[in-house]
Amino acid sequence: MNRSMRAGLSLFVLLVLGASLGFGAPPGTTGAALGDAKVYSAASANAKAVATLSAGDSFRVLETGAREETVAGRRGRWLRISTPDGIQGWLHGGWAVVSTSYLKLADFPDPSAYGRYIAWAFQKGERVRAVRDFEKVSKGDLGWFYAVDDGDPPVLVVWDKDLDATPWVEALPKDFPRILSGRVYFVYPDTFEPLGEKTLADFPKLAREWREGASSETLFPVGSRVILGEHQAVSKGDPDSKNWGGDMSDYVGTTAVVTGHEGKDPWGRPVVTVDVDEGEYYWRTENMELLERGTGELADSGDGEYGDGAYSYEDYDDEDYALEEAFPVGSRVILGKHRQLDPSDPDSSYWAPEMDDYVGMEAYITEHAGLCPWGEPTALVDVDGGNFYWRLSDMELLEEGPGYWEGEGNPEGEYEDFGEDQAGLIGVGTKVILGRHDDRNGGDNWAPEMDAFVGKQATVTEIIGADSQGFLVVAVKENTWSWRIRNLAVVGRGVAGSYGFQVGDRVILGRHRFVDGNENWNPSMDAFVGMAARITELVGTKGDGSDCFLVRVDVDKGRWVWRVESLTPEK
Fold first, then answer.
1. Distance separating alpha carbons of residues 147 and 166, to the nearest angstrom
2. How many CB atoms lie within 10 A of CB 216?
3. Which of 313, 335, 308 is nearest to 324 (CA)?
4. Secondary structure of 121-190 in the HEC alphabet?
5. What share of the chain is helix, strand, coil (3-state, %, to 5)?
6. Pairing of the two strands 550-553 and 142-148
7. Cis check: omega of the bond before 153, within 30 degrees of 0
């Protein structure tokens, strides 16, 4: 999913706007500076300059001078303006483009400046039209503007047609009607234009109409997360028309995953099966609340035997992270017998009989292995050759480790067999948005002077190689600094940090390397290294202990998360 599954670099900041200045109201007269332009305390070039606008800085016009004047060779009227960040004063109109309707992309020096304008000038519900193709969005598609935030892409649009989208739920505003998720697609500011219609969208009404008109397969695909609701009787004189029985009441309000569509019940209501009752009951979709739209497929969770759980970081909470921090890789521990977490479920001990031989032994943690199926952080250790997953909560810490595992030999030599940072789809000529480096592997390779370029568009002129922390850096045409690929966003492709990759791309899977002593790797992933795969989901950095960008792919049925820095495009 595009951000429509995304994560990433803050390209456009949603400004907090003062209602007293009319921001967020219909546009009225707005404008943008054509270049560096001074704002004065009065309508005179001899007055005190209170601020300087840069090219593309936008503003609202509060008052227009009575007559035209020539200043520095430019003809125009004086404008009393107010900017979203609180600047007020007088700007000469010869240094600005001004309109009583919405400004266009062509009025700005770059899409980022236009994005900043959209953030405060557009109202929720503005009618928009796509001006170019962008992934699932086609040129000419109509939709409704909803919001701008600091994600990548930053603009949330509800499109008229069903895009079978699966947006990242964390990216949706809290008040957004989730039932419209399949029509959501995040786009860049240069993807659409306003139509200037007077009527704004009524999103609750759109949601009701969509729920009433679309099929249950469209609204609640298999894999959707929902909250179960109590059925209502279809006919007041027929209690059976509630289609309710057994212990269904025990599940009301429970979060569940849709596992199958079963047509309609005898009263004509679409019904589905869910996971929490193991498919025992048919649940009416009309009484469900959608939390997250599914992809149409269920994730493969294995056969329930030891070692077949999905070791994913995406469900970590603060306690899980704290437990991993208390038992860093390289720690010396005493292995303990796992507790049975659910008294009614012997399998919740997550134990193999062969593990009995190692109980009470000293061991070194060689790798953090994610969560077991019962939500407990696990690790691999040296004494069993990495064959079993041991719960951290059942270990005794003897000596805190350094955060990496050196093994018996030289760790530097071992790392040579692991993955390395790749360039992804970034090469000479690629247009990118520059991002702030993160502090990893002992440094951020950053100079204060680079701050001025963050969020700016640039063109790659050279792949320089790895910096002293082991991250690939590039040179760009617009400045003399070196920029880490992992912190770039490719213009119009993928999301920030995805190395230009997006859903649907074909890649070759690579072995993860250690970053800050963390490789985010499970031995079961070894079998897939070198395979060709298709990206099915952009996960983002959440769940990787070193903030490496993660994706899911098709060949392992989405079971594992793969770092994009270790992927190469399939040729």
1. 18
2. 21
3. 313
4. HCCCCCEEEECCCECCECCCCEEEEEEECCCCCCEEEEECCCCCCCCCHHHCCCCCCHHHHHHEEEECHH
5. 20, 30, 50
6. unpaired
7. yes
Distances (CA, A) of 436 to 209, 439, 475: 43, 10, 15
Quick count: other Cβ atoms within 10 Å of Cβ 495? Answer: 27
Three-state DSSP class for residue 242: helix
Number of other residues whose CB lies within 10 A of the CB of residue 471: 23
β-bridge partners, 148: 155
DSSP letter at 118 equals H
In tens, the pLDDT along 351-409 reads 888 888 889 888 899 888 888 888 889 988 888 877 788 999 999 999 988 877 765 43
Tokens describing residue 215: 């099929």
- The per-residue pLDDT for range 88-137, each reduced to its tens digit, is 999 999 999 998 889 999 999 988 899 999 999 999 999 999 999 998 99
Contact indicator for 371, 350 with CB cutoff of 8 Å? no
User: Which residues are CB-contacts of 48 (< 8 A; sequence separation ≥ 6)?
Assistant: 40, 41, 42
Q: Which residues pair with 443 in a beta bridge?
A: 440
Query: Between the CA of residue 420 and those of 465, 470, 495, 519, 549, what are the distances in Å?
Result: 11, 8, 21, 11, 14
The candidate with the shortest Cα–Cα distance to 98, out of 170, 154, 41, 27, is 27
251/167 Cα distance (integer angstroms): 26
> What whole-number distance in Å separates Cα of residue 480 and Cα of residue 493?
25
Q: What is the DSSP string of 342-393?
A: BTTBGGGG---GGGGGGTT-EEEEEEEEEE-TTS-EEEEETTTTT-S-EEGG
C-alpha angle 293/138/124, rounded to 5°? 65
CB 105 within 8 A of CB 193: yes
**Is there a contact between 199 and 15 (Cβ–Cβ < 8 Å)?**
no
Residue among 253, 254, 232, 245 nearest 282 (CA): 245
Q: Which two tokens stand for residue 171?
A: 């990216």
This prediction's pTM: 0.50
C-alpha–C-alpha distance, residues 163 and 218, integer Å: 10
Q: How many residues are present in the chain? A: 571
Cα(120)–Cα(22) distance, integer angstroms: 10
